[in-house]
Design goal:
By secondary structure, this protein is an all-alpha fold. Helix content is about 70%, strand content about 0%. The protein contains eight helices and no strands. It has helices at about 10-25, 30-40, 45-55, 60-90, 95, 115-130, 130-150, 155-175. The longest helix is centred in the middle third of the chain and has 28 residues, at about 60-90.
């Protein structure tokens, strides 16, 4: 009688899980934990809305154009993100993997794609177009956001990569669709 084949996780799934577990161990160091929580919270919607409001009241037209573009990209990103989250229904690493430090509650149930990374990427690219100095800072923030979302056990690396790709696509397409 032959044995049933041993089921091995898909290589991407194994890599995803390994990265989450390794990065999550960094939260044993209090400064990493504090920084990760702060960066993740800055990626929540309230901070983006504050940035948009501040840009809207900047003197000159560049701030207002950027703010309106960010609103449009944010709405498009939210729509795409919501549709994908419900369709894929991928469980978060903090639910699927054992032994992770859960240091902050997830904003919703599913992990794919990372909405924080999607919005940080799309906003950074839009800002880079309108206000390059701000855009460069936001690009660095987008990378940190992706990293800490994995570190916190809220996303797999493939979730944040997908979020970044979708966010970049939304930003690029918006440049074609929006005048000015």
């Amino acid at each position: 009688m032959s044995r049933p084949p041993i089921e091995r996780p898909h290589p991407v799934a194994a890599f995803d899980a390994s990265c989450v577990q390794r990065l999550n161990r960094l939260l044993d160091h209090r400064p990493c934990l504090i920084a990760a929580r702060a960066i993740s919270r800055l990626g929540d919607g309230e901070a983006w809305l504050l940035l948009i409001a501040l840009l809207a009241v900047m003197p000159g037209g560049a701030g207002m154009r950027c703010a309106l573009h960010l609103l449009a990209v944010g709405a498009a990103g939210l729509l795409i993100y919501g549709l994908l989250k419900r369709r894929t229904a991928r469980r978060r690493p903090c639910v699927s993997l054992h032994g992770l430090h859960l240091c902050m509650p997830p904003l919703d149930e599913f992990s794919f794609p990372s909405g924080h990374t999607l919005h940080a990427t799309s906003f950074a690219l839009v800002a880079l177009h309108h206000l390059p100095a701000l855009g460069l800072g936001l690009l660095a923030f987008a990378v940190l956001t992706a990293l800490v979302r994995v570190m916190l056990g809220l996303h797999y690396p493939s979730d944040v990569v997908a979020g970044a790709v979708i966010g970049a696509a939304v930003a690029v397409v918006s440049r074609w669709l929006l005048p000015g």
